[in-house]
Design brief:
The chain has about 290 residues and is α+β, with helices and mostly antiparallel strands. The chain has 5 helices and 8 strands; from the N terminus they run ααββαββββαββα.
Length: about 290
């Protein structure tokens, strides 16, 4: 074959492209398992990072075994739809940490797509949502972690919010992004910004559930966080994502908070009906005098 001809060039290029593509496909398939494991570890770290903010005594070191810590602290992990109903269960890894199941950003994107369709008028899709809920026990305190997901300025943004047993108070927050501007929008992942959420709460009475906006535009400080200076678009996008996801978590959060309150009331009433031991009066036996004749 003439090595200087067009036919040789075409055949050689085709073989080279096919060979390189095959090698890349093989490498990608070989590393898929490891990549999935890394994504799971990152997600678990962020879940723990949000939940741990509910108690300052719990710290997560960089070399911590996050799988073991997650299995220790998690009480339940499941899915709920937009009506507040449980629609599925996740493995919490209590028996084997390798079996831990968590939702990744790709899973969150699928739910976000459904939420957008509902917002566009397809209300019947609310029952098809499968939004993840993670319930942790942080040193005796129940903390529920829920995610949020949306579009930032340059790519997707997401995060995890730790909610108090009252169903509305934020105990902690962790956020991340794919391609926001370093030093500006990327600051949503920085600890100082995330700490601003601690102690804030969702508005459960109607209207905006939560907002992230410029200080001058904030009308309900208890349900808002000040936007990052110079990153208004990313900040508002994050606020929109939190508000939208929290809107569809409200039925579950409200129901869970009511159940928790009822349980606490029942325990309190049960305690009140029990008579404390130190309030029970006992009567000493009468002194018995015995005359002994000598």
């Amino acid at each position: 074959m003439n090595t200087n001809g067009n036919t040789y060039t075409v055949i050689y290029s085709t073989i080279l492209v096919v060979l390189v593509a095959a090698i890349l496909a093989f490498v990608a398939m070989s590393l898929q398992g490891k990549q999935n494991e890394n994504v799971k570890l990152e997600t678990i770290s962020k879940l723990l990072g949000a939940a741990s903010q509910a108690d300052e005594s719990l710290t997560i070191e960089g070399d911590a075994d996050v799988l073991a810590l997650y299995a220790e602290k998690i009480e339940d992990a499941f899915y709920v739809n937009g009506l507040g109903e449980k629609v599925g269960q996740m493995n919490t890894g209590k028996e084997n940490v390798k079996d831990i199941q968590v939702t990744t950003t790709s899973d969150l994107k699928k739910q976000n797509d459904i939420i957008k369709k509902i917002e566009d008028g397809q209300n019947d899709l609310a029952s098809t949502l499968a939004m993840p809920v993670y319930v942790f026990n942080i040193n005796g305190k129940d903390v529920t972690v829920i995610p949020c997901y949306g579009a930032g300025l340059w790519g997707p943004i997401w995060g995890y919010l730790a909610i108090n047993a009252d169903g509305k108070t934020i105990d902690g927050a962790v956020f991340d992004h794919k391609g926001e501007t370093p030093g500006l929008g990327a600051k949503i992942a920085d600890a100082p910004f995330c700490k601003e959420f601690h102690g804030k709460s969702f508005n459960m009475d109607g209207g905006e559930v939560f907002t992230v906006a410029k200080a001058s535009a904030i009308t309900e400080p208890e349900h808002s966080v000040d936007a990052i200076s110079g990153a208004t678009i990313t900040s508002q996008a994050l606020g929109k994502s939190i508000n939208l996801w929290a809107k569809y978590y409200k039925p579950y959060l409200a129901g869970a908070a009511a159940a928790h309150q009822a349980e606490a009331t029942a325990v309190s009433d049960s305690t009140m009906t029990c008579t404390p031991a130190d309030s029970v009066k006992t009567t000493a036996p009468a002194e018995v005098k015995v005359n002994v004749e000598e």
